[in-house]
Amino acid sequence: MVAAAPTSVLPTDTSTGPRHGEPEPLLRRIADHLGTLTGGAGWVVRVDEAARSWAVAVGDGSVPGEAIARLLTTGEPVVDGSVLAVPVRRGPRVVGACVASAGHAAGFSDADVHLAELFADYAALALADSGVLAGRTLEQAVRQELDWVEAHAPTRADLVTVGAGSIPEGLGDEVFRMTQEALLNAAVHADAQCVRVGVVHGPGTLTVLVEDDGRGFDTAASAPLAVATAGARLGLRAMAARARRLDGELEIDSAPGRGTRLRLTIPCTSAPPPVPGRTRTGVLVAAVRPVVRAGVVRMLQLGAPDLGMVSEVSGADDLAATCRLLGPDVLVVEHDLLGDDLVGMLERLAAQPDPPAVVLLADDCPDERLRVAVAAGVKGCVGPDADRLVAVVAAAGRGETLLADDQLERLAAPTRSAHAITPREREVRGLVARGLTDRQIARALAISAKTVEKHVGSLLRKTGTRNRTMLAQLG
């Protein structure tokens, strides 16, 4: 239950609020603290359970795709060696995942899993429905948030609507995000027993009031937004920053033991300025045979007219340089074109200042190649099926990973022959993943370099990988 989680587990953040284009501050804190607790890396991932797709909301590097695939298949927490993934639930739905990789060989304890589940409770409000209206009215979206609060915290939640009016496109999403943050503060930080939300449509303005009977805080003790809990303070700062960006006002009235009353007033006579950047998703198609390139381009043009074709290329030699020059949002690349340099090419693409989302074009991608590709950040692997191709490329343009059910099952299945890997081989694989040479591994384990070479060869056979780079990705 959300209210039971101690607020002290969230780290203090001294920023003054999110800048344009940055992730939600709560999700950033959760991902950072997951990494701190495990000594490795942390991610918060958005999940579309119906579409069987996911997208990284917060976190650096490639998220472990196999763990997410298994979580989508089972709906339960996944502990797989050095990877932990727990579902973020919204009632019966799985809307995301908190994922962590351990920075030590001991893996994860039951206490680690429990802490990750607490973080998942925190992430649920901020992550649900991607923080946007998604076709709902503001009132419908707020009502669903209040239903969730009542179901997951000992809090009664009421909604009152006054007047009616249209909200400019984009503005409703911003107001909804701020309302979510206010409800999070009330349910998690304030220990409120009752929360009331009012939505007032006025002449040229939209006002949202959020009142709670929680512990409150002294607004005169220091700065106006300084509250007792670091997480709540950051949330209020984020709301204030959003309100200023929309030429609105945020008023807070609170006192210790007397609850908090928050009033947000936003002018809604015009829409907020458009987000700069390309309005159409640009696609680059890379395939050896001209007929394949032409077929892919035609299918995308017919199935998704809003996609923009950037160019076509026939070889892998200058693929990274071409992407850097043309700046596509999505790269659709023939699986066979990359050959044995799959990992190297993906690493070169990911290192670019504005890397494209990569979709592999293949009738059938071997299991080990699929595992390595997803671990390296590939957004999908699809054959010459027009509908499926359009869906995967469109999802990649939105930053989502979309895999077929059979691909998810293959990723979720245990790695072939993994039971035959010996403890010593696991040690060697971990050091290979850290980039150590055979001589360095030999010194670390007090064995000969020749013995290390034999262990590496055995690991390549058992895991089905072709080289040390692919083995490191699996490690």
Automatic annotation (TrEMBL):
Q: Please state what class of enzyme this protein is.
A: transferase
Which Gene3D superfamilies does this chain map to? 3.30.450.40, 3.40.50.2300, Histidine kinase-like ATPase, C-terminal domain (3.30.565.10)
Q: Region Disordered: start and end of each range?
A: 1-23
The UniProt keyword set, sorted, is: Kinase, Transferase, Two-component regulatory system
The record's annotation in PROSITE patterns points to: HTH_LUXR_2 (PS50043)
Source organism's superkingdom?
A: Bacteria
HTH luxR-type domain ranges (all copies): 414-475
**Which catalytic reaction applies to this protein?**
ATP + protein L-histidine = ADP + protein N-phospho-L-histidine
Enzyme Commission number(s): 2.7.13.3
What InterPro entries does its record include? CheY-like_superfamily, GAF-like_dom_sf, HATPase_C_sf, HATPase_dom, Sensor_HK_TwoCompSys, Sig_transdc_His_kin-like_C, Sig_transdc_resp-reg_C-effctor, Tscrpt_reg_LuxR_C
The record's listing under PANTHER family reads: NITRATE/NITRITE SENSOR PROTEIN NARX-RELATED, OXYGEN SENSOR HISTIDINE KINASE NREB
Protein name, per record:
histidine kinase
Origin organism is: Actinomycetospora lemnae
